[in-house]
Design a protein that fits this description.
2 copies of one chain form a homodimer. With 492 residues, the first copy, chain A, is of the alpha+beta class. Chain A is built from 18 helices and 19 strands. Chain A has 2 domains: 267 residues, 2-Layer Sandwich (BirA Bifunctional Protein, domain 2), CATH 3.30.930.10; 113 residues, Anticodon-binding domain (Rossmann fold), CATH 3.40.50.800. The longest helix of chain A has 19 residues.
Chain lengths: 492, 492
């Protein structure tokens, strides 16, 4: 008789591009989200949590001819026929929520949202297919005061999560100014206009000279390939370059430069006026150029937004994986997008907002040494006598009631060395030992594991004798003495 | 020429069985999760956050012949062929994580996890296809001390989130005791055994008499349909009934009853012994029967778990949607499942844990009036003169710097009535008014909206005059006076 074929064991792996987060990675993110929510709340923003799943229709991805609309999103078809997908950001769900509930929501509606989003993209180093976003948006206000408020709030938020003033800058640009610039250029057609927009997008990478080349005849790129240019004459390209490089040493100078760059374009003038309003409102509240600056060289998002565009950048240097210093770069971005809800209702609803890349912010704080990489572990009560588990449980209960993180060893207690190894792996500051002798004398042994590790590493024999890392205390003094040790370590 | 067909507008709707959460619904859940995490952390449990997406293989759903393995889960196929799915609980991901990372994790591994899970099930009233779970599990310990600890922690957790002692009870049962009972019955075959298990599952609904009938000849159910019975003789069914009804007026009595019910079965004796150990450990820590009770009538989960089973129930009555009083019921459940990791590694790894239904707990607190249903809104600074937006922004900035939630009205300021309607919709406690006259005299008007609403509802004309809900203060006193009003309302 043939043996029944054995079912192979499933592989215990995260799907490609996903990862697990342990301990401090989780709690630090939770704390950061809490700090951000605190600022958002103080600014009058209300929490909104939509589900991770939306209809593909509401997300704005349209079914292609192929089997599944899975370009960039994770999508599947319901049995009854609806296509569903995981949200890829928090803005598309906001548009759907606002259109659906607009009669019950205040106008303007200030809301914040935080949670995971999913992208069906090729994962790379440090790039995951699930990550956190943390957004705040004001829907239903066309006032530049809404934009200024978002910038001020972003500045307050960065400081609240531990980025000191001077270590970040928020740059503000405006799509209308760019539109004005494009108007003055008298471009031949939409194709040429789009080519110019694509070129501007590369300003971050290729700089002023590169942009000039790409707007003109073309450019030899770093890999040696020749990139065809847009084919504009040098003077026709000039307004774009003037726009991108119009940042001056004061806001007034920058705005003057921008006014020149947009020439007689009404749209352009409106854009410069919007930037002026934002700058004035922020100045009145004391947000100077050390925190928020009008900077036309910000190009990220200019293709997407319809008015002001914001970007928060960390200005300190970090060391990259190859040991080279580099700027940390962008941690948040946003802007005004006045056609948010139009897809659903046909009505234009002005909106402006920001999205903070929480995981990047956490990475920045970690690289600057501003977040502990590991939490302090719990006090471990060891098990010397497995029949007296109730005694050990009472000890941890006492410690916990005193607010001290504590646990009893729950593995096989036979080998005491394993219990100390466990305490080590748990990064425990203190171990408690109560054998039969201690029990009989009404005492416990307290082992200061942090001091013990220090002594083991550095101390001479004399010091070793003078500073015992293990000592006996009365059972009734256990909690008090443990607390002393813990507060000592927190201070050092 | 035919008109191009107009693209229909997308519908702004949540997918069937999903919903949006607004304001206090979100922040109260966040605060509850924080309170729970605080207790879990103090007990030495470490945070774990895995992604919402797992391979179907790791989740343990096997591909059927049909197109998609979508029985109960949301699943889709990757372009390269892997089937992925949204997690349906937090236990299956724990098994995968432990198998994948076991060499880097402490043994035993205490972990907690909280977050949304997804079920591809038919939605019903109050039943959604995305909901939160909040789990704590100890992996790698076979000791009953681990189970006792989970029960104690669950008790502490319920009290920490605002369920007072007396309003809940945690019931503990044991699958091994049931196995012992089944052994003593000498059942004919597996089919009969399974039929008995299914019957026990109905004990909650049909009670002792119902179970007797269903184990015997059968039973006429409420709808008038006749349900066939298992066909046991009355005395053969007796051990099951004895098991289910063996709860006594003391733990000792209950355990004695159980010892009798399992007769000579070794498995059964082991199960009773486990319950005894748990009861002793809990008693030693002061957790009495008012909090945690050995109760063999708990049948939920008995089919799934392999040892102790726990269930937390709220014991107070609420009024259901039809106005009838009923018990609120279960808010958490768990137990021991010793084959958690075996699917992946072939090794048996003992594990025990609990899952708290956070949304049900929140609903319970709301129904008992222990959670405010709406948050207090922000102070609203109205806009009397749209050219002085900078002044109004400075006011909100001052209020926020004093820790007061505040916002400026960002809608069209032309109609002042709309601004007050907005403040009302925002549940604002206070509105600030500064027109040109006030500005010239260096004052602002403060409108106490809560007092105003009270007066409008109840006051006589005399009281109205005596207690003005709107008054003038010096601009420099604005923050102090607003704070006075807010703290007055908090006290009342």
């Amino acid at each position: 008789m043939a043996k029944p074929k054995k079912q192979p064991r499933p592989k215990a792996v995260t799907p490609k591009g996903f990862r697990d987060y342990f301990g401090a990675e989780v709690t630090q993110r939770t704390e950061m989200l809490r700090a951000i929510a605190g600022v958002y709340h103080r600014y009058g923003f209300d929490a909104l949590e939509s589900s991770g799943v939306e209809t593909v229709e509401a997300l704005g991805k349209f079914l292609p001819d192929v089997d599944r609309p899975n370009e960039g999103v994770f999508a599947w078809q319901e049995d009854e026929g609806d296509w569903l997908a995981l949200r890829y950001d928090l803005t598309a769900p906001l548009a759907r929520v606002y259109a659906q509930h607009r009669n019950d929501l205040p106008t303007p509606y200030r809301r914040y949202a935080m949670g995971p989003v999913w992208r069906n993209e090729k994962p790379g180093p440090g790039r995951y297919r699930q990550f956190y976003q943390c957004d705040a948006d004001t829907v239903g206000s066309a006032s530049m005061a809404a934009d200024a408020e978002i910038c001020a709030m972003l500045s307050d938020t960065l400081e609240a999560v531990g980025i000191p003033r001077g270590d970040y800058v928020i740059r503000v640009n405006n799509r209308k100014v760019l539109n004005g610039v494009l108007e003055t250029m008298g471009l031949a057609d939409t194709a040429q206009r789009d080519a110019v927009l694509r070129t501007i997008d590369k300003f971050d990478k290729v700089g002023e000279t590169g942009v000039r080349e790409l707007l003109g005849k073309g450019r030899l790129d770093a890999s040696g390939a020749y990139i065809d240019g847009v084919g504009l004459a040098a003077e026709q390209a000039e307004p774009v370059v003037a726009f991108l490089t119009s940042g001056g040493s004061s806001t007034a100078e920058t705005l003057d430069n921008l006014r020149r760059a947009v020439g007689s374009s009404e749209t352009g003038a409106r854009g410069v006026d919007e930037l002026q309003q934002i700058a004035d409102l922020l100045a009145a509240q004391g947000y100077g150029r050390d925190r928020i600056v009008i900077d036309p060289s910000v190009v990220r998002g200019l293709g997407y937004y319809t008015g002001p565009v914001y970007e928060a950048e960390l200005t300190f240097e970090i060391t990259d994986e190859k040991g080279r210093p580099r700027q940390f770069g962008s941690v948040a971005g946003g802007g005004r997008y006045d056609d948010l809800v139009k897809r659903f209702t046909g009505q234009e609803v002005p909106a402006t907002g920001i999205s903070i890349g929480v995981d990047r912010l956490l990475a920045a704080l970690r690289e600057k040494g501003r977040l502990r990489t590991a939490e302090q572990g719990p006090v471990v009560v060891t098990v010397m006598d497995r029949d007296r588990m109730a005694d050990y449980q009472s000890m941890v209960a006492e410690l916990r009631q005193a607010g001290i993180r504590a646990e009893v060893y729950l593995g096989n207690p036979k080998n005491f060395g394993n219990q100390l190894k466990y305490a080590d792996r748990r990064a425990s500051p203190v171990a408690i030992i109560e054998g039969a002798d201690e029990k009989a004398s009404g005492v416990v042994q307290i082992k200061d594991l942090i001091l013990g590790a220090e002594i083991a590493e550095n101390a001479t024999l004399e010091e070793w004798k003078e500073r015992p890392s293990q000592f006996e205390v009365k059972r009734g003094d256990m909690v008090v003495r443990v607390r002393e040790i813990l507060s000592g370590h927190q201070q050092s």
